[in-house]
Design a protein that fits this description.
Blueprint: E1 2-8, E2 22-29, H1 42-50, E3 53-54, E4 57-58, H2 65-88, E5 89-92, E6 96-102, E7 105-111, E8 114-117, E9 122-128, E10 132-141, E11 147-158, H3 163-169, H4 174-191, H5 196-201, H6 203-218, E12 223-235, H7 237-313, H8 316-326, E13 334-335, E14 343-344, H9 348-361
Antiparallel strand pairs: 1-2, 2-3, 2-4, 5-8, 6-7, 6-9, 10-11, 11-12, 13-14
Helix pairs in contact: 4-6
């Protein structure tokens, strides 16, 4: 059995082959050797196996120099085509706007997301149109000159239509050149309008005011300020201690006011109850008095009516008859009249009694 192998020799291949030539090598294996028969020793089998191969080398040349040159030329053409393809095409991802420059000059158009052709002499600068979030920290002072450490974040995005103008006037580092310095300036300006005590409770108003002020300044550059978040406000230790002490005092005062209000409310309730009870008693008295007056009125009216009836029934004879029935038999001591005509009335019964007493006391 015969095997053939074809190969080319390059400059780094060892001798005795000539560099630059192509050769064919044939190897023949003989069939039916003693190594395949049973009962043969191991040493004999190895000798038979080594003797089965013969390696006659054919050193005749099989390729011409013209084929080699064509191959090299083809490789060069393919490499040049690949280089031109990658230099003349560009892929823009979603969320980016491509700024095109030719020898450093910004062109008057941009490339949106997708696959585009371009000149090999043009460069592409990507501007991110997506919403971006950047944290920040700074120091500010309140209206009562209290130092405040502020930590927050800003969300912003650039407009696609003005990305080219922004790149031409500012560049790609627009945040560090425009947004960040003016954000810090507006933060300090807004914080200076509030007292230290009101800063914590006015966190939402602070964020809104900083965003509105910054939005007006960034609008001309095509930068949209979506939101500004004040995430932490930290004061000095001395101010924090003072605030805590004031809060404790305020809580104590509030507790005392609550207790006083409770006592006042209880007193008012007690006075109200007493007033209600007094009103109830007065009402009862009034009702009783009205009842008694009504009873008296009824009695008086009844007596008057009776007296009227009696008066209507009186006659002279009836009056004399009543006087006679009621006389006890005694005459009056004096008879009334004018002062000069007043005369004493002598009682005969009295004189008889006086004489009797005199005789008893004087027996002679």
């Amino acid at each position: 059995m015969t095997f053939e192998a074809h190969f080319c020799i390059f400059e780094s291949f060892p001798l005795p082959f000539r560099p630059g030539g192509c050769y064919t090598v044939s190897v023949t294996r003989k069939q039916g050797t003693a190594a395949e028969r049973p009962g043969v020793s191991k040493e004999h089998k190895e000798e038979q196996a080594m003797s089965q191969f013969t390696t006659p080398v054919n050193t005749r040349k099989t390729a011409s120099p013209k084929g080699t040159k064509a191959l090299v030329l083809a490789v060069i053409v393919i490499l040049a085509a690949l280089i031109i393809f990658f230099r003349c095409t560009v892929q823009i991802d979603t969320g980016y706007t491509a700024i095109v420059t030719t020898f450093g000059k910004v062109e008057d158009y941009t490339l949106e997301a997708g696959f585009h052709m371009k000149s090999p002499f043009q460069e592409i600068i990507l501007m991110d149109n997506r919403e971006q979030k950047t944290p920040f920290s700074t120091q500010a002072f309140s209206s009562d000159i209290q130092q405040v450490d502020v930590v927050g974040s800003i969300n912003y995005a650039i407009n696609k239509s003005t990305a080219m103008t922004l790149f031409r006037e500012v560049g790609t580092d627009y945040f560090s050149k425009l947004v960040y310095p003016r954000m810090l300036e507006n933060t300090k300006a807004v914080f200076s309008k509030y007292t230290a005590e009101n800063l914590v409770s006015a966190r939402e108003q602070l964020s809104i005011q900083i965003r509105d002020n910054l939005s007006r300044e960034m609008e001309r550059y095509g930068i949209s300020i979506i939101s500004v978040s004040i995430e932490n406000i930290d004061f000095t230790d001395a101010f924090t201690d003072a605030v805590e002490a004031k809060q404790v005092a305020a809580q104590r005062k509030l507790q005392a006011e609550i207790e006083q209000e409770q006592k006042t409310m209880e007193t008012e309730q007690q006075a109200q109850r007493q007033k209600i009870e007094a009103d109830a008693k007065a009402q009862v008295v009034k009702i009783n008095a009205d009842a008694e007056a009504y009873s008296t009125k009824v009695k008086a009216e009844a007596e008057a009516e009776a007296n009227q009836k009696i008066a209507e029934s009186l006659t002279e004879n009836l009056i004399q008859f009543t006087q006679v029935n009621q006389w006890n038999g005694q005459l009056p001591a004096y008879v009334s009249g004018s002062a000069a005509e007043a005369l004493p009335v002598l009682s005969l019964n009295a004189l008889d009694a006086a004489d009797t007493d005199t005789l008893q006391n004087d027996p002679e």
